[in-house]
Write a structure and sequence with these properties.
Layout lengths: L1 E6 L5 E5 L4 E5 L2 H4 L3 E7 L2 E2 L5 E2 L1 E7 L12 E9 L2 E3 L17 H7 L5 E11 L11 E4 L2 E6 L5 E7 L9 E8 L2 H5 L2 E7 L9 E9 L6 E3 L5 E10 L4 E9 L1 E2 L4
Parallel strand pairs: 5-20
Antiparallel strand pairs: 1-19, 2-3, 4-7, 6-17, 7-16, 8-15, 8-18, 9-17, 10-11, 10-12, 10-16, 12-13, 13-14, 14-15, 18-19
Amino acid sequence: MISKSRTIAASGLAVAVATAGIAAAGPTGADLNEARVVSKVKPSKLDKKRFKPISVLLGVVNSPDSAGNEIANPAAERIAWSKNVNVNLTKAPRCTAPLANGTTPAFAKSQCPAKSFLGSGDATVHGPGSLPQCGGTPCVIADPVVSVFNGPGRSQLRLHTYDQDLGAASPIVNARIVRANRQERRKGYGQALSVPHAPVTATLKITSFNSTILKSRKVATAKCKPKKFKVLRRVTYTDGSSETASKTQRCKVKRRR
């Protein structure tokens, strides 16, 4: 189930009309985008009391129809997860090497300690219909590969992306694992992935972005109490508007032998 609520921080974009000295209200970023969140914990059958290693998928989905309208692009992202899931990055070495935009996944891995690579994912980028290759409607122009590296600092993650067509425009997305804020904790969330500065894509639009932290890295653990995992996405747009989307996954208690 995916539920959604919108909180509009700005009543509309004010467009100054110099001749009349008045302002006209327009749509906000939250009005133009249909934001969703994706997540998956594996295995879903876990101990009731003890935290055990898991793989965890986290990601976002945005609607492609507003590609070309920059205010519909997220400016900041945050995904919080329930207290029965824990991410501890001290379990893996950090990659402190500089990683430039546009470098290949193979190059990035060659610069980092092997176990600082935590997992991978994929993304989709849409362009507006005005682009020659799109023929009047928004279309996919890139499918970047996402690689997750621990570091360079404490509690930091680098989401390295690469697509041959984007080249040097393939961004490094800097994220941080943080404690859930007070409002999130009241709702049962414990930690969050914070991306305070989402990639600036101008008229292009990232319509999906996800990554999975591997179970073998043992940085992500979970237990099945309560009997569900939940995530909450909050996206903030450049005009100050925002919206939230949530998802819930059931889990089963694994009986001890």
